[in-house]
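User: Structure please.
Assistant: Input sequence and predicted structure:
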Amino acid sequence: MILVLDASLLITLARIGSLGLLPQLADQIVIPNAVYAESVSWTPGRPGNVEIAHADWITCRTVENQAQVQQLCTRVGLGEAEAIILAREIGADAIVVLDDATARRLAEQEGCRVVGLLGLLVVAKQRGMLSTVRPLLDAMRNSGFFVGDELYARILRQVDEEIV
């Protein structure tokens, strides 16, 4: 499995010290150039800058079809647009990881398989990579990642963790 990532996922996992979870979840982690720029080049001092720049398990790729990227950029950011088109270019093995609702809908319309960060946490727990999801959910919420109460409870139910 190949995961094609948007910047928000990388930045969020870096903020909570869990970036290292990604290479355990997939055979390849791929980001488009715009995501690299957003995560590393454009924002010196942002959590994860150094870790992302030096992660030898992240492959940075150029999106071939820039015309399609520009079409999507009328509705989503450049990083999201490139991630969607790159996932299409990679093909059936690729899953694009997006949390923005509009970007997710566009990716699905483009024929991509889509998952969000919380879905990756569920998979990690199911595979035994995490003993509990709650501490990560709490850390994400505390770092500014929005997880509504209903979704929080639904994720905990899905991974058989107690809802307090």
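The chain has a mean pLDDT of 92.
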